[in-house]
């Protein structure tokens, strides 16, 4: 069985770990730990968020897919397949914010932000999810004036109220300016126009607006917000020999974007590509964040902080590293 996997992130490498004969194609030479991009901004060290890929992963950009002929066209040639798994991760959509916003989607973005910081005194972070909360804490510790702007009435709206309240308390204690229930209308040289006030800052960083990659739409696949639509077996609703995994796919009932879900979906997708009949179910075991030196989050349905939360965070990073190194 010739299985081609587009994308070598958490989902793609999870699929490869299950079926070592799969061919993985990725545009990068390294596996990116996206949840560690804030550490790169803090230190300037890109190796904190990257692990070199094994040599047998094909480095190429995908140009298109002939779904009828079952051929993937890339910058390194064409690759035929019997089954195709698309696990291309996510992109950031900054188009909903008028003006010049610095995105934080990949390693290059993190290094760009790091390079701008010596000339930056004040920063606005748009989005109060995991990325925005951790980034706000780091930039405040670096002595920057920080505004964290969130459309919802609380931070971390997808987590427990305990986690949300703890994050808000810690950031306020650090001196972060929280603008909750606030909509960003425009970013201009004069400042950031919001539904409340004008905020004057040197740089605005987007920490929200995640969607599926543009390639999903370019390939003509049915999608929702750029995420390809799949059935309960992760099979494309358009082609029976194509499967989706990770952040670039969703079902009609919605699938959250997270590393844990990506790993689980990568395995299910490859199992079904190989002829099994496994319904996809996911379990979000935990989400742990860091503000300064404080670790906290939700673990197995409980709010945790301190050493237990830090251990869970480090175990997650360790498992990701081992997944790559085992290939």
General description of the model:
- This protein is of the alpha/beta class.
- The chain is 28% helix and 30% strand.
- It is built from 8 helices and 27 strands.
- It has a 5-stranded parallel beta sheet, covered by helices on one side. The chain has a 5-stranded parallel beta sheet with strand order 12-19-13-14-15, with helices on one face.
- The longest helix is centred in the C-terminal third of the chain and has 19 residues.
- The model has no long low-confidence stretch (mean pLDDT 95).
Structural class by sheet pairing and helices: alpha/beta
Rounded Rg: 20 Å
According to CATH, what is the class of the largest domain? Alpha Beta
Based on the coordinates given, report the CATH architecture of the largest domain: 3-Layer(bba) Sandwich
- Percent of residues in helical segments? 25-40%
Count the beta strands: 27
Major sheet: order of its strands?
A: 5-2-1-9-23
Tell me about the largest β-sheet. 5 strands, parallel
Determine the mean pLDDT.
95
- CATH H-level name of the largest domain... which superfamily? FAD/NAD(P)-binding domain
Strand content: 25-35%
Sum up the overall morphology in one term. globular
N- to C-terminal distance: 19 Å
Number of domains: 3
The tally of helices reads 8
Q: Which fold does the CATH topology of the largest domain refer to? A: FAD/NAD(P)-binding domain
**Low-confidence segments:** none
